[in-house]
Design a protein that fits this description.
Blueprint (H helix, E strand, L loop, with lengths): L40 E2 L7 E2 L7 E5 H6 L5 H5 L5 E5 L7 E5 L7 E5 L2 E2 L18 E8 L3 H4 L6 E7 L9 E9 L3 E11 L3 E12 L8 E13 L4 E15 L12 E16 L3 E20 L4 E21 L4 E16 L8 E14 L4 E12 L5 E12 L4 E12 L3 H5 L11 E14 L4 E20 L7 E23 L2 E14 L4 E2 L6 E10 L4 E11 L1 E2 L5 E2 L2 E11 L4 E8 L7 E3 L2 E2 L4 E9 L1
Parallel strand pairs: 6-9
Antiparallel strand pairs: 1-2, 3-8, 4-5, 6-7, 8-9, 10-11, 10-36, 11-12, 12-13, 13-14, 14-15, 15-16, 16-17, 17-18, 18-19, 19-20, 20-21, 21-22, 22-23, 23-24, 24-25, 25-26, 26-27, 26-28, 28-29, 29-32, 30-31, 32-33, 33-36, 34-35
């Protein structure tokens, strides 16, 4: 399914955007959490706040506390611990990353930041390796069809990055952190959060550089984000979000065709003002977002004998309106409208400058029929300027057995992914009609709490049937030209099992297992880079009031690469330690690939060997 991008792997990385969203207060009135404990609220599932006990096991919530403990430096780190998620990269830090959610394509999962769609560049593959976790309150993931609420590229799921608000932090503070480690790794971050009676601000800026292990593999990234909120009154709030990234990455290419000259430079930014209105019954959120992404670089083939200089840009304008209204204590209706204009350019064919317009309208209802039974459903229509319009729908049931503390979930949904700018630009026959890819998704899940809720067990069975997959077909073997068609079909299905057990407040463990059967049904072959079996384990130990440590392990088993390339099984183990010296100073250390395992996430691109890092953090 990713073969259409193979010619661009060394040169195309994706951009990032950002911004703020509304957490409609009205949604909190429906079905309050069943326990008196403070639980996190997620918005990714329905675009309205829900307690974790009301969302299926297919929804994950990664808190800023978790990301700080595990010392996540990019979105790749945070997502790699999630069941049903396969994160791959072409080698060391900063290399092109791909995300396969439940076996779907890397361009089938959409990324948002506080409700704003992140800029994915020409190929709709997001630059996970460039997205910093600094200034995030949480990373929220919904696996499975998500187009009703989020539109394009919702076949695999949705990742929503929630930027922290100064209103949610108890005290004003500034923080400076620095770390160093293997392969001449250096990183520094300055962040802060502050609020007054009517205003709040949060920001973070990071500089990171490393040489990695191979020749011509250095990486440097400068990134920053900010959020500003201002209360006009008790009901009206203005918001402003900004994000910028500037990265430079040398590209060593594969071991069989190494390069000492290839590189990629990426610049991207997003600016988004918005306004929201909220009462106990009604919430309205309106925002505009402008994003620009530009990449230039040098592609090299056959040992630097064939060099190609390239550049491309991708600009987006987005206007979004969402209205949430509580009809009663048990019914919440949400409606919304989104307008987007995307424009792109590639030096591959400078005569083609695609420009697309899209208008989407959606409606969703949440109905708490009884204390035990909840029904959710929604519909959406998207009108495109250049290809077939799409209609999608979803229906979800949640049933709770209170005496046994068991919850059952079932969901049926349709979703789609439109053609990318790459599909258009590399199509040598522009007259070919290319339509969005489509999917139908089925899911059944269960969550069981035991031992006074210290033990949580989850299980999900899923199936995605994908049709009209877009493939780039060469004019003849080895040709640099070809046509793009809706010719393929695929099926992904499997089982996800999860376990969380808190032995006591100082010691807890997590474990998950994923079985995945992902096949290209058109050619009856397995989809590449998706492991049939994935096992994950994590343990956290609070050694003292100020000292904590943890270990996590991930194993991939039974994989295939492009052209049938062999990808060996592996288990990689990481270790972290955190020491809070006093209220102002803390130290941290981590070891990645602790046992120096040799493995490849992508055939021909070896992952880093054992690497160690140490750092300090100062709060003032």
């Amino acid at each position: 399914m990713d073969i259409k991008y193979s010619r661009l792997t060394s040169s195309l990385t994706a951009g990032v955007l950002l911004t703020a969203g509304v957490l409609p207060l009205a949604a909190e009135e429906i079905g309050e959490p069943s326990t008196n404990e403070l639980v996190p609220y997620v918005v990714v599932s329905t675009r309205t706040p829900l307690g974790m006990d009301r969302v299926s096991p297919s929804v994950s919530y990664i808190s800023d506390t978790d990301m700080s403990f595990w010392q996540d430096r990019s979105l790749v780190d945070a997502l790699s611990r999630e069941a049903g998620v396969t994160v791959t990269s072409n080698g060391g830090t900063g290399s092109l990353g791909s995300l396969f959610v439940r076996g779907t394509n890397s361009d089938h999962t959409s990324f948002f930041m506080n409700g704003r769609r992140l800029n994915a560049g020409l190929s709709n593959q997001y630059g996970l390796e460039h997205i910093s976790t600094n200034n995030l309150a949480s990373v929220q993931l919904q696996k499975g069809a998500s187009s009703v609420n989020y539109g394009s590229n919702g076949i695999g799921g949705v990742v929503d990055l929630q930027v922290r608000s100064g209103f949610d932090v108890l005290e004003n503070r500034m923080e400076l952190s620095a770390e160093m480690g293997s392969n001449n790794y250096y990183s520094g971050t300055l962040s802060g959060v502050a609020s007054g009676e009517d205003w709040a601000i949060s920001f973070a800026g990071t500089k990171l550089s490393t040489e990695n292990e191979r020749a011509n593999d250095a990486y440097e990234r400068n990134s920053g984000s900010a959020r500003f909120d201002y209360k006009l009154s008790d009901l009206w709030t203005l918001e402003l979000m900004a994000l910028g990234t500037d990265s430079e990455k040398e590209l060593p290419n594969s071991l069989s065709d190494p390069s000492r000259l290839a590189f990629s430079d990426v610049e991207s930014w997003l600016l988004s003002p918005g306004i929201r209105y909220a009462t106990d019954e009604l919430s309205i959120h309106l925002f505009y977002a402008r994003s620009e992404y530009e990449e230039d670089g040098l592609s090299a083939y056959f040992g630097d004998l064939y060099l190609t200089q390239y550049d491309y840009w991708f600009d987006s304008d987005e206007v979004s309106l969402q209205v949430d209204y509580s009809i009663s204590d048990t019914i919440l209706l949400s409606t919304g409208m989104v307008y987007r204009r995307d424009k792109g350019y590639s030096s591959y064919d400078s005569s083609i400058k695609p420009s697309f317009d899209q208008i989407g309208v959606y409606a969703q209802g949440l109905w708490q029929l009884t204390d035990a039974l909840e029904l959710r459903g929604g519909v959406r229509t998207d009108d495109f300027s250049d290809y077939e319009n799409k209609f999608t729908g979803s229906l979800e049931l949640i049933y709770k057995f209170e005496p046994s503390d068991t919850s059952l979930f079932a969901k049926l949904a349709t979703s789609y992914a439109p053609p990318t700018m790459t599909d258009i630009i590399f199509d040598s026959n522009p007259g070919t009609q290319i339509n969005p890819e489509e999917s139908t998704s089925y899911e059944v899940g269960v969550r069981q709490f035991l031992l006074e809720q210290k033990l949580e067990l989850t299980a999900s069975v899923f199936r995605n049937e994908i049709t009209d997959l877009i493939e780039w077909v060469e004019d003849y073997p080895g040709a640099w030209t070809g046509d793009t068609y809706n010719v393929a079909r695929a099926r992904t299905q499997g089982v996800e099992l999860g376990m969380k057990y808190e032995f006591n407040p100082k010691f807890s463990v997590t474990a998950s297992y994923t079985y995945l059967d992902a096949r290209d049904q058109s050619e009856d072959t397995r989809l590449v880079k998706r492991p049939r079996h994935t096992a994950q384990f994590g343990a956290r130990l609070q050694l003292s009031e100020s000292l904590s440590t943890g270990v996590n392990a991930t194993g991939f088993f039974d994989r295939v690469g492009y052209g049938g390339a062999e990808l060996s099984d592996f288990v990689v183990v990481n270790w972290v330690a955190n020491w809070q010296l006093n209220e102002t100073v803390s130290f941290f250390a981590r070891a990645e690939n602790l046992f120096d395992k040799e493995y490849e996430l992508t055939a021909g691109y070896p992952a880093l060997g054992r690497a160690g890092y140490v750092g300090a953090r100062f709060q003032f």
